[in-house]
Specification:
181 residues, mainly alpha, Pectate Lyase C-like, two-stranded parallel sheet, 3 helices, 4% strand
Amino acid sequence: MIDRILKSTVLALCFLTLSVPAFAFTQSALKNLEKHGSCSGCDLQNIQLQGWGLNGANLQNSDLSGADLTRAKLNGARLDGANLNEASFHNAELKGAVLNGANLTGAEFDGAKMQKAKLVQAHFVNVSFKNADMEKADLSGGRGGMFVNFSGANVSEATWINGNKCPKDSSGNECLMMYRE
């Protein structure tokens, strides 16, 4: 009899565990972002935000690792200290966005519009900015700098990792070769 009760209890607990949504906290964080345009310090891992309008959003210190923000509008957004590991920002708008101190390891910003974006002291390892528009962006003090793809990127008048300014109308690879440390 006790065996039957114990088995029933274990079975009930397993059922309850499986019925809880896998992304319950993420869903509440997403609702907070939708309602307030802010989700500082939130867990938004692997979230799908393709095409979302998040201009001016506060996502400071949030975990957006693995997130898909393809074509998202993040102009003027605050992503300081955010974990953007393996996040996708393909063709996203990040004009004037602040990503100071963010972890960009494995992130993809291919085709992104990042004019005047601030990436001061960001962590750059295996990041792709292929064909991104980074005119007047600030990458000063960036850390890592390994395996970063700037092919076809517009870095005209951008401030490079070492503090030097890229010449007007220069591409990412030209500036990379000029200021390689």
